[in-house]
């Protein structure tokens, strides 16, 4: 029993508890949850007491409400409102941030970063930790982050900047060069041309957009252009769910596309950042080509198969099939690539939303056959049910054999060799963009391990800008899996994690040879793709 006494004081005070972890050892999970709730509440109260969430007006700041506005104060953060009726067209909510380290080389003394309404709820812009990351990457000594709202929906960005210019000038530090105009920045996706081919909604996923895009050219060496088709959930705008290369009739002509693929695969930049130009082909004739990996994290996922390449080789050589489960179908691009290049793989995709399966079929060329099956189910429940089925099957086999160990054939008939979790989170404000929080709970991770074969591999695509969240997920996975590896994508937020069930571990210096063994198993038509997978495998790092 927990007894809480409410005081009659009008002041907002910290909650004081008379217990700690040691006194609540009877149920550690409940005790931990209770203490976390108290700590969270006290943090909110502490921020309020410190005034960190108070909105100040420009007049308040000019009168010294938060110190001398003309001087830079490292680590200074103030929430404020800009504009008022009769002075500006709009009112704005903004955050003033002075870089924590003032000794570095700054590109400018003061800058403005405009966050569109569709992205203002994201962790990167709505949380204090995320905002400091934006400050660091902006190279500004003082950054004024302006968060647009619904009232700005119909305004042109140019009009917004004109409206803001006189409002932000008084916020510049005294040593700012008066001759220089304060620069404006905003989040951009680098799209040169965009054509929406589908716009609809699902009761589970919400609004969905499929678009054909052409990126801004940032590579002068690229002489030809490649268009891409993208799947986007509006609930996580700014995060591309799936991205596929479009070719004429979905076929590959080396004379047209070969040079671009080679240059694109050798580039460390993501295709989302604009490495390619516009294609001159009519979009109506263009179809998805499944032999190309447009998403760098897909390349990283497959490169992790190197960790069990010896096992995969033995299964293939014995005439058996590697059983893989992909949770999160999306556009079906990863399953289709695996289906095409690994003939010995049996793939089962698990998708919660039936609308996604229809979109994958209609717009991304996804197909099913005897080696590719789709289950419309909850991924967590699917793994739990499969674990129970696997456990029940083992008991039956053990009973009929009268022995304590299954034969390899019997074990292989039910066990899964590879489980990949590639799903997004519907709560983008939590700081965990991928996967949903339930997929990194210890109970699910344990079910995954119980479902995998003895040499099984668990892969999860983790997207979060919060170091604390990443550390928490890694810590949980270490508790469950014998060995843990990762690939941090260069220039990306994605951290791809690999959990191994086997007690015997592979040393990092053996990974290049293991990657070559995987390369022989992959039947890719393009050496450039195989090379990019091999190169990614060399970035595998063991998490100790």
Automatic annotation (TrEMBL):
It comes from Gossypium hirsutum (Upland cotton). Gene3D superfamilies: Vaccinia Virus protein VP39. Keywords: Methyltransferase, Polyamine biosynthesis, Transferase. GO terms for biological process: methylation. The keyword Signal does not apply. The gene is LOC107935986. The lineage of its organism: Eukaryota, Viridiplantae, Streptophyta, Embryophyta, Tracheophyta. Pfam families: Spermine_synth. Coiled coil: none annotated. One of its GO terms (molecular function) is methyltransferase activity. This is EEF1A lysine and N-terminal methyltransferase isoform X3.
């Amino acid at each position: 029993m927990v007894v809480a006494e409410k005081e009659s004081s009008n002041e907002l005070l910290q909650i004081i508890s008379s217990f700690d972890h040691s006194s609540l050892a009877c149920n550690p999970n409940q005790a931990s949850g209770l203490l976390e709730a108290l700590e969270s509440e006290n943090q909110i109260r502490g921020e309020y007491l410190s005034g960190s969430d108070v909105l100040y007006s420009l007049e308040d700041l000019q009168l010294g409400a938060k110190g001398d506005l003309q001087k830079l104060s490292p680590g200074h953060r103030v929430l404020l409102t800009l504009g008022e009726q009769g002075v500006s067209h709009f009112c704005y909510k903004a955050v003033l941030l002075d870089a924590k380290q003032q000794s570095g080389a700054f590109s400018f003394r003061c800058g403005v970063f405009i966050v569109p309404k569709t992205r203002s709820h994201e962790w990167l812009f709505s949380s204090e930790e995320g905002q400091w990351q934006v400050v660091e990457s902006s190279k500004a000594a003082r950054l004024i982050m302006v968060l647009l709202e619904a009232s700005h929906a119909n305004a042109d960005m140019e009009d917004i900047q004109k409206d803001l210019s006189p409002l932000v000038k008084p916020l510049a530090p005294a040593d700012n060069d008066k001759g220089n105009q304060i620069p404006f920045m905003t989040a951009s996706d680098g799209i040169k041309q965009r054509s929406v081919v589908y716009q609809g909604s699902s009761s589970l996923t919400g609004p969905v957009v499929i678009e054909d895009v052409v990126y801004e050219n940032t590579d002068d060496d690229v002489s030809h252009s490649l268009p891409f088709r993208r799947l986007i959930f509006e609930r996580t705008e700014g995060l591309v769910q799936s991205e596929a290369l479009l070719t004429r009739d979905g076929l590959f002509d080396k004379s047209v596309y070969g040079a671009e693929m080679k240059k694109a695969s050798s580039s460390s930049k993501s295709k989302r950042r604009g490495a390619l130009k516009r294609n001159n082909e009519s979009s109506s004739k263009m179809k998805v080509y499944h032999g190309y990996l447009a998403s760098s994290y897909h390349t990283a996922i497959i490169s992790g198969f190197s960790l069990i390449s010896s096992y995969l080789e033995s299964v293939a050589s014995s005439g058996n099939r590697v059983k893989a489960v992909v949770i999160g179908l999306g556009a079906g691009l990863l399953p289709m690539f695996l289906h095409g290049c690994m003939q010995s793989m049996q793939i089962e995709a698990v998708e919660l939303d039936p609308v996604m399966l229809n979109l994958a079929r209609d717009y991304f060329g996804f197909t099913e056959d005897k080696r590719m099956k789709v289950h419309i189910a909850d991924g967590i429940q699917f793994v739990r049910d499969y674990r129970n089925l696997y456990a029940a099957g083992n008991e039956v086999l053990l009973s009929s054999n009268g022995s304590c160990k299954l034969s390899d054939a019997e074990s292989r008939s039910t066990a899964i060799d590879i489980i990949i979790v590639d799903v997004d989170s519907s709560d983008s404000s939590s700081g965990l963009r991928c996967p949903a929080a339930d997929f990194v709970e210890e109970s699910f991770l344990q079910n995954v391990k119980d479902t995998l074969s003895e040499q099984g591999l668990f892969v999860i695509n983790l997207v979060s800008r919060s170091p604390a969240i990443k550390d928490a997920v890694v810590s949980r996975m270490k508790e469950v899996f014998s060995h843990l590896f990762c690939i941090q994508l260069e220039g990306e937020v994605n951290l791809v994690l690999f959990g191994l069930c086997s007690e015997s571990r592979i040393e990092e210096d053996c990974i290049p040879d293991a990657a070559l063994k995987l390369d022989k198993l992959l039947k890719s038509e393009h050496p450039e793709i195989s090379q990019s997978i091999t190169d990614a495998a060399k970035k595998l790092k063991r998490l100790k």
